[in-house]
Amino acid sequence: MIEYKLAVVGPLDTNCYLVYCSQTLECAVIDPGAEADRIFPLILEFGLKPVYILNTHGHIDHIGANRDVKDKFHIPLGIHPLDDPMLKMVQQFELSFFLGAKESPPADFLFQDGDSITIGKSALRIIHTPGHTPGSVSFLGDRMLFSGDTLFNGGIGRTDLPGGSARDLETSLREKILILPAETIVLPGHGPWTTVGEELESNPFLA
Ligand SMILES: [Fe+2]
User: Fold this and answer.
1) Tens digit of pLDDT for each residue in 18-67?
2) Rounded distance, CA 194 to CA 180, Å?
3) Distance from the alpha carbon of residue 56 to the mean position of ligand 1, in angstroms
4) Protein residues within 5 Å, CB atom, of ion ligand 1
5) 180 pLDDT band (50/70/90 cuts)?
6) Which 3 state secondary structure label does DSSP give 190?
7) How far is the CA of 23 from the centre of ligand 1 (A)?
């Protein structure tokens, strides 16, 4: 079974999820955006064993503590190939002082739509959901969808940043996310959780 713990980090309140196998406690650190000192105590408290760093996309507020997590646990970092270049984009790091972010180490592996990442006795499936960025992905495991900045509780990802595409975002939402079972729990990159069914009913951007 997949379970998770949440650390809200950085001035943009990024959700960093520790997604773990309840049997083995192996865990993926999804989007360590900043403030590793809020992430590490959770790992310790629950006895989690980090095995991967996974980025839903390459924006600085989601990758800013990749370096700290990598230095501490020496685990591989994965991202979609279309957002891989963002790990090296120096312009992003002009914001880093404000965001408490550090330059990311390079990716150790690149994942594609449909890939499965093993976490202990469970797995996360990669769903490529471009729009917010070209290489945005969502991670699906046990009826939980870690949606990054693609779908929020009551909102959708912005598409006005470089590489964003409103048309791609709409297609991703319609063809990849809203087709999931209504009871699927959606855990976004910012803000509270929701479900696919609730968003279909009440999200003003999906009307
Ligand atoms: Fe973002």
Assistant:
1) 999 999 999 999 999 999 999 999 999 999 999 999 999 999 999 999 99
2) 13
3) 9
4) 59, 149
5) very high
6) strand
7) 32
Bridge partner list, 19:
4, 28
Distance 207 CA to ligand 1 centre (A): 23
Distance 84 CA to ligand 1 centre (A): 14
DSSP 105: P
- What separation in Å is there between the alpha carbon of 151 and the centre of ligand 1? 11
Q: How far apart are CA 157 and CA 148, in angstroms?
A: 9
Residue 206: burial class (beta carbons within 10 Å; 0-12, 13-18, 19+): middle
Ligand 1 mean position to 174 CA, how many Å? 19
Please count the residues of the chain.
Answer: 207
Question: What is the Cα–Cα distance from 137 to 117, expressed in whole angstroms?
Answer: 13
**E strand residue ranges, 82-189:** 109-110, 116-119, 122-128, 137-141, 144-148, 151-152, 155-156, 185-188
> In this prediction, what percent of the chain has a pLDDT beyond 70?
98
**Residues in a beta bridge with 53:** 29, 77
Paired with 28 in beta bridges are 19, 52
- Cα of 173 vs centre of ligand 1, distance in Å, is 16
Q: How many CB atoms lie within 10 A of CB 57?
A: 27
Percent of the chain, pLDDT > 90? 92
Tell me the two tokens of residue 86: 């963002």
